[in-house]
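Local shape tokens:
==================
===
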Amino acid sequence: MNKVRIITKVERTLCSNLKGMLRLGENSVKLPDNIQWKEVTCREHASLSTAEKVDDKVPIYNATLKFYTCQELQDHRNYAYRLKLVDGTQLLLGTSVRPFPVMTVQDSLPEKPSDNSWMEVMVTWSWIRPIPQIAG
């Protein structure tokens, strides 16, 4: 059976706020209760692609989150991202330790005044475990 997996909300917090995160298994984490998340204003819908590769017999999982926003996000700090899906699932990109997610922002000025001037944001993260779900 296919599941509909559409991202409905993107939120972020400083990676340092994830101290105390517990790993419940290979694909699941429990977060501390006091984390303050800030919603990122996105043009619907954000996309997430994941890939797995083996490097020197060690699996590496890569995630690429892509969305469009008009919100200024660059403040050169390390952020983790919580993705809420339409089915209620929540995914986490990032931990309180390196490697942190890397955000790339591409800003372009439109050719015509009627075109949108959204910034394209790509967040990439590589880790030695699959992208975890957040346990409730």
The chain has no helices and eleven strands. The chain has a mean pLDDT of 92. The two ends are 23 Å apart (CA to CA). Residues 71 and 128 are 31 Å apart (CA to CA).
